[in-house]
Hints:
The chain has 250 residues and is mainly β. It has a single domain (2-246), classed as Porin. It has one helix at 2-18, and strands at 26-45, 51-72, 77-98, 103-124, 132-155, 159-184, 189-214, 220-246. It has an eight-stranded antiparallel barrel. It is elongated and about 75 Å long. The chain starts with a helix and ends with a strand.
Amino acid sequence: MKTCLLxxxxxxxxxxxxxxxxxxxxxxxxxxxxxxxxxxxxxLDYSSGNNLTRASSSKTYAFSVGPQVGVFMNDHLILGGSVxxxxxxxxxxxxxxxxxxxxxxxxxxxxxxxxxxGPFLRYYYIDKLSKNIPYIQLNATLGTGHGVxxxxxNNNMTSTYQSDGTTSSIFLWSAGGSxxxxxxxxxxxxxxxxxxxxxxxxxSNSQNATNTTSNATEIVTRVQNxxxxxxxxxxxxLGLGFHWFFKKAL
Length: 250
């Protein structure tokens, strides 16, 4: 009797733990906080020309949120798609020393918002009796959006400037992968924690105006700067999300 009871409990546990992993099961959820941080520095020493040295540093923060929908192709593999809203903020500081003894100091800030969509593949390494199941995921996105920029600086205190602008016609693509663990609260609800790597390319058109004020005469000169930019970035990301698993009706 005890043996039969133990077998029944074991079978029920296996079925319960693996119920969400079968062909046709619908995978619905959202990544509620994918964040990334990137830091870069660039130091140049000049042997000729007007500059002696230039040092710059930049810090980029990004956050994205969006729904995901997929379907189990078998007991391990999910094929799906996602739509994400992303926001990034980049701060850059530059200090340039000139041969005439002057120095140029500049601070710039860029904020960009984009909407991205694309496919993903997720593969679960199933341990049927575990509430914590590891996975790997590959994803790619295409997106578009807009942004704003601003800046300020000075030329060895002989003049100061303020700038502002907009970023339009943004087109971006990205590709990446992650490894994570889904913790199942029950047969149908799981929480993801993941760490990943992503690479992205962004092209955009920027319209920027700079107002330079002479400290001696207080005359303001306004210069319009329009340019096209291509930006390649890569970095580490951390993700947190919740997903629901809806087994298809028999």
